[in-house]
Amino acid sequence: MRRDRLLDVVGTLARLGLAAVWLASGVPKALDPDQTYVAVRAYDVLPPLGVELVAAMLPWVEIALAVLLLLGLGTRAVAVASALLLLAFVAGVTQAWVRGLSIDCGCFGGGGRVEPGQTAYVAELARDTGFLLLAAWLVVRPRTLLAADTRIG
């Protein structure tokens, strides 16, 4: 029983940590949609309409994921969605790095082109890998404390 409680605590920390990540990334983007557009465009992979759609929707998707995680509602499904979104971010940063683009990822607001040598691709990929581990934990073991999932069934 004690081990299960410890795992529940770890899961709760993963859930709340991932929620904090999504809030910290979604809110600045929602508050500055023009800069979000600049950041998405800098990846140079989407046509103009795709850039507009991603820049308009991404902040709200991130905020929605955060709210669901805070509530602990649909934790496993939200963790899967989080992992997929994080994998898309990893792919985006990786392709920018491989193609020699000099951009700031815009992961937590801001973003866009930067001077050569001012990129932080390794740190961005390492950070996103850590976030992926939080999501993976919740996919494997979504049971957490103070979660709506627990109360619903």
Low-confidence stretches: none
Label the overall shape: elongated
Largest sheet: 2 strands, antiparallel
Number of helices: 6
State the end-to-end distance.
19 Å
Helix content: over 70%
Lateral strand order in the biggest sheet? 1-2
Task: Tell me about this structure.
- The chain is built from six helices and two strands; from the N terminus they run H-H-H-H-E-E-H-H.
- The chain has 153 residues and is mainly α.
- Strand 1 and strand 2 (112-113) form a beta hairpin.
- The longest helix is centred in the N-terminal third of the chain and has 30 residues, at 2-31.
- The chain has one domain.
- It has a two-stranded antiparallel ribbon.
- Helix 1 (2-31) runs antiparallel to helix 3, helix 2 (33-42) crosses helix 3 and helix 4 runs antiparallel to helix 5 (121-140).
- The protein is 74% helix and 3% strand.
Main traits of this protein?
single chain; 153 residues; mainly alpha; 6 helices
